[in-house]
Amino acid sequence: MRISQLITKTRKEAPADETAKNAISLIKAGYVHKDAAGVYVWLPLGRKVLNNIISIIREEMDSIGGQEVVMTTLQRKELWEKTDRWDDEKVDVWFKSTYKNGSEVGLAWSHEEQMVDTFRQHIDSYKDLPKSTYQFQNKMRNETRAKSGIMRTREFIMKDMYSFSRSEEEHKVFYDTVTEAYMRIFKRIGIGDSTYFTFASGGAFAEFSHEFQTICDAGEDIVYIDDEKHIAINEEVMRDDVLKNLGVDRSKLRQVKAAEVGNIFSFGTSKSEPLDFTFTDDKGKSQYVVMGSYGIGPARVMGVVVELMGDDDGIVWPKEIAPYRVHLVSLGADELVLQEASNLHDSLEAGGIPALWDDRDTSAGEKFADADLMGMPTRVIVSKKTLESKMFEVKDRTTGDVTNLSHEELMKYLA
Ligand code: ATP
Ligand code: MG
Question: Which residue, 33, 110, 381, 412, has fewest beta-carbon neighbours within 10 Å?
Answer without folding.
Answer: 412
